Amino acid sequence: MGTIQKLRTIKEFHQTRNLPPPEHPLISVVDYADVQLQQEYFDCSWTLDFYLISLKKNIGGKVKYGQQTYDFDEGVMFFIAPGQVFRIEPTTGSPSDRSGWMLLIHPDFLWNTSLAKAIKHYEYFSYTIHEALFVSKKEEDTMMDIISNIRREYHTNIDKFSQGIIISQIETLLKYAERYYNRQFITRKRAGHQMLEQLELLFAAYFNDDIASTKGLPTVQYFAERLHLSPKYLSTMLKALTGQTAQQFIHDKLIDVAKEQLSITDLSISEIAYHLGFEHTQSFSKLFKSKTSLTPLEFRKSFNMN
């Protein structure tokens, strides 16, 4: 797969696409016609620490994602979750009529909202769906109306109501996308990547079934055994598909669970650490801060500042 370029912030995404700085650090709407494609854009694969939802036409290349290649000469929608790897493969010529939009959403924009958990249940963000969403002109117009509402809200009305209004618009967009996918798959089979799907289920069960309280922190060995793979092979596969080693994948999933519990429960920091499988609270706090730049307590307090 070659070099994988990781973008941690929406600001970095804007910089690599020669766009002005985003007006909000955690959410942005980009007009695809404004994106300036440089050769470096095609020379590596990309992975993001945020969600990317896009509708593009005439991209001037093909997108390689989840071992599948998409042709963007027609209007199609594309959904990328944090940590997934994609690549743009250039085609001959440079189209002058590139159009469409990209919605960038950092997961931290969603914390302490119902969408923080719900967004993970939309299957089209998963590698288990490796088919682009083809939309009709009417469906495209519906999506554009929602995107215009989001853009208008964060451009003109940043106040205590803004996040809730924008979240509701994102939820509406995702529900329409789900409807359109269901329509598209009436006559098509969904293709899946079995290993990643099973790994996600195993990870969820590790905490839902309280396995962590007896076995401690989840390990590469634990998941590899249940997938009937060697730890090295599992890590190699994850690296190719997500840009992460198995250990990095596990750590990021731990932080996701921790953020959820810090934002929606009253459990103490030590109780959360124990639930995750940490033997010492200090170890949990150290990993959390290394991943988020905040201590668990600072992260929790950030929701009580209004």
- The beta-strand count equals 10
> What is the element string, with H for helices and E for strands?
EHEHEEEEEEEHEHHHHHHHHHH
Average of pLDDT: 81
Low-confidence stretches: 187-192
Provide the helix percentage: 40-55%
How big is the Rg?
20 Å
CATH topology of the largest domain: Jelly Rolls
Give the tags.
single chain, 306 residues, alpha+beta, Jelly Rolls, Arc Repressor Mutant, subunit A, 2 domains, five-stranded antiparallel β-sheet, 13 helices, 10 strands, 16% strand
Q: What secondary-structure arrangement, pairings included, does this model have?
A:
Blueprint: E1 4-7, H1 10-16, E2 27-31, H2 39-42, E3 45-48, E4 51-57, E5 61-65, E6 68-71, E7 76-80, E8 85-90, E9 99-105, H3 115-118, E10 133-134, H4 137-156, H5 162-184, H6 194-208, H7 212-215, H8 220-227, H9 231-242, H10 246-264, H11 269-276, H12 281-292, H13 296-301
Helix pairs in contact: 4-5, 8-9, 10-11
Keywords: DNA-binding, Transcription, Transcription regulation
Pfam families: HTH_18 (PF12833)
Domain HTH araC/xylS-type: 201-302
Describe what this molecule looks like in 3D.
This is AraC family transcriptional regulator. Residues 201-302 form the HTH araC/xylS-type domain. InterPro entries: Homeodomain-like_sf, HTH_AraC, Tscrpt_reg_AraC-type_HTH. The protein is built from 13 helices and ten strands. By secondary structure, it is α+β, with helices and mostly antiparallel strands. The protein has two domains: 4-184, Jelly Rolls, CATH 2.60.120; 194-304, Homeodomain-like (Arc Repressor Mutant, subunit A). Strand 5 and strand 6 form a beta hairpin. The termini are far apart.
